[in-house]
Amino acid sequence: MAKEEPTQPIKELQTDKSEQNLTKEAEEFKPTKKMLRWFDTTVELGYTASILDISNASKVSRTQWYEWSRNDEFVKWWDDQMQRNLRQNRWKLDKIGLKQAKNKYNYWKDMMNRSGNTIPEAQQIGQQVNQQFNLPNANLERITK
Fold first, then answer.
1. Residue 5 has what DSSP assignment?
2. DSSP state letter for 123
3. Which of 3, 20, 43, 84 has the smallest number of CB atoms closer than 10 Å to its CB?
4. Neighbours of 54 (CB within 10 A)
């Protein structure tokens, strides 16, 4: 019985699959217009907004949000955008902290820590270390026998 030769050599099949994987990995996640609108609305409404609030304001169904959040690529993109937004607006938080630091110690302390000038806690400054020693001879005489 003669063996049938495959129509395409095995090496070519393996190459095609590996090229597909490389192409897939190279593709970058592209958010849709709805995703971008949802993100912009989230930033605009702030951290107190609920999913329902964002859905109503962006005119995107909240079920879309739940579908997107099951996609790891979307979650990574969302997290990257939120971190980017935080970096863009960090100066606002610093401005608030510096303004409040004039009158409130906690803001001043937080701003000092933020800038890398860590301040020791008040309890740690000049703190004593108490140790108890049990001495067999109260007069501290050397016992020789």
1. P
2. G
3. 3
4. 20
Distance (Å, rounded) from C-alpha 105 to C-alpha 53?
36
Residue 133 half-sphere exposure, CB side, CA atoms within 13 Å? 6
pTM for the whole structure: 0.54
User: For position 5, what pLDDT does the model report?
Assistant: 59
> CA nearest 29: which of 64, 80, 63?
80
Instruction: Report in angstroms the alpha-carbon separations of 4 from 10, 12, 75, 136.
Output: 13, 17, 48, 97
Confirm if 29 and 77 have CB atoms less than 8 A apart: yes
- The residue that leads in pLDDT, 96 or 16, is 96
Q: What rounded mean pLDDT belongs to the chain?
A: 77
Between CA 130 and CA 93 the distance in angstroms is 42
DSSP state of 122: G
Q: Are 85 and 43 within 8 A, CB to CB? A: yes
